[in-house]
Amino acid sequence: MKEGNLAAPTRHPLDWESDNFYDETKCLDELERVFDLCHGCRRCVSLCNSFPTLFDLVDESTTFEVDGVDRQDYWKVVDECYMCDLCYMTKCPYTPPHEWNIDFPHIMLRAKAIKYKKGEAKKRDKLITSTDAIGKLASIPVVVNAVNAANSNGLLRKGMEKLLAIDADAHLPPYSSKHLRKTKIENTASSAVAAGETSGKVAIFATCYGNYNEPDLGHDLIAVLQHNGIAVQLVDKEQCCGMPKFELGNLEAVAKAKEANIPELVKWVDDGWDIMAPVPSCALMFRQELPLMYPDDADVQKVAAAMVDPFEYLILRYKAGALNTEFKSPLGKVLLHSACHQRVQNIGPKTKEVLQLVPDTTVQTADRCSGHDGTYAVKSESRAASVKICKPIARKIKPGEVDIYGSDCAIAGHHIEDILDDDSIAMAHPISMLRSAYGI
Fold first, then answer.
1. Which of 181, 199, 189 has its CA nearest to residue 274?
2. Residue range 423-439, pLDDT digits in tens
3. N or C terminus: which one in the chain shows less Cβ crowding within 10 Å?
4. Which domains does the chain have, with CATH numbers?
5. What angle do CA 190, 195, 196 make, to 5 degrees?
6. What is the mean pLDDT of residues 156-179?
7. pTM (two decimals)
């Protein structure tokens, strides 16, 4: 046996359609095995609240071992996991191909799927993970004004907290009736120039957040790509990528989203377009989780191979000598939060590499999870933990030391902004920073 994970970690396909996957006793047996190994290691204690919860259960047991923990308390650990994947990617020395074969996030997923199938998911959680449905309703003209006003009204937020257990102090993203998918873009594919591994043609998967909440982020992305001579179009139709339902354990809903999205995206891939999602979690869904759910589906694998992160794409163009580096404005001292679901894609710090091309710009990174997850930071029962997880990032952002900060995960950026609560330091998404640097 080799100590530590000395080979690149690999992930096994998810056997989510089998009866064995939903066998609660077998799942609890596996949880006990994994928890016992985690207890003996404890490297992940600083990542999220799952591990302190587990270790406290062990330390407060009669045996000081996992065998002294009531198995029904395992669910407390499961509930704290929001599958950022950092334990798997950055800390765990026992991921496959190590013989102990620990994939903590995916055993958490299995437990969540069992819990969901048993009907134990909260109505609130089913609601707030229905991002398409909420987005379509909340962004209707006139309705959108009422929704945004309610989300910023302290008294109404207190009522929402009592009714839905959505924390009154948590930042809720505003909605926009000017959907990104309403944008009309000239198709310049006929003049697209391939460079290196890129086709020069990008079809954008807008994402729920990019479409309903922050369409300006999509407009900034389109502007940057077009400024670099890249042909851009929005895919003709799309549904939520499925990540919110995936993290809830509702894998049947993920399957339905896959059946809607993959055929559409394959058409673009077959026509020679690269696929891009401005939200890291959505890109990860197509690049990792769906391929692990459907390892034998050729179309899923094809889309996974064509999906790219925006800054990954730009640095590929730069290496091929096809990136516009005529920047107009420096960014100064940038603090860049490393988005968890971007790190999991194993593409390296591409955002940092691109931003550092801007003259008179320095970029330092905060390589910690923000603790947001899209839903974890807004729930009453987990808000305090999310703030605690995020504070080490906020403490890095100090006047005079940082001019501007942000994250490739837009909601993580706003979560950091909310906790920092300092308007003297600018916050912006990195793609918006790049547009500003170009002066477009």
1. 199
2. 899 999 999 999 999 99
3. N
4. 20-117 (no CATH), 123-164 (no CATH), 180-315 (no CATH), 327-438 (3.40.50)
5. 145
6. 94
7. 0.93
